[in-house]
Write a structure and sequence with these properties.
Oligomer: single chain
Number of helices: 3
Order of helices and strands: HHH
Helix content: over 70%
Shape: rod-shaped
Largest sheet: none
């Protein structure tokens, strides 16, 4: 089983976009199920009327019973889809909140890094940045065996 949550996403798609797409598909499926339930209900009403009016065709009662059972299943499926849709809506909302929080944290980190390595008055690199770059350069020289002249 693949545990990577992004493995099934199309190339370049974000999880929130994928969830939004799934939510749209789920809502469409729910609409179709609701439409089928309504049509089945109308058929059942017509069958019941046929029974009330008298001389029904053979098998009408049996068909009505089957239709009513199917109508119940369709209604149950519609209710389950509603629950799924609410869950997906919550997930999409949560993803959007997390995206905004991540963007804010990234901006804060960028500002903190700038404040740590730049002089606040002039914006020029400060001693901390100089020491960091010097340490990095000396380590690189040591790794590559570069000797100072």
């Amino acid at each position: 089983m693949n545990t990577d949550p992004n493995a099934e996403l199309p190339e370049g798609a974000k999880p929130a976009e994928s969830l939004t797409e799934v939510l749209g598909q789920s809502k469409h499926a729910k609409d179709l199920v609701d439409e089928c339930a309504d049509e089945l209900s109308l058929v059942n009403v017509a069958l019941k009327q046929e029974l009330v009016d008298g001389d029904p065709l053979p098998g009408v009662e049996n068909a009505l019973e089957k239709n009513e059972a199917i109508e119940d299943k369709v209604q149950e499926a519609s209710e389950e889809l509603s629950v799924v849709n609410r869950g997906l809506e919550d997930e999409v909302t949560e993803w959007h909140v997390l995206e905004h929080q991540l963007a804010a944290a990234t901006e804060e980190e960028k500002a903190a890094r700038h404040a740590a390595f730049q002089d606040p008055l002039t914006g020029l690199p400060n001693r901390t940045l100089f020491n960091d770059r010097l340490k990095h350069g000396l380590a690189q020289a040591k790794r590559h065996g570069w000797a100072s002249p």
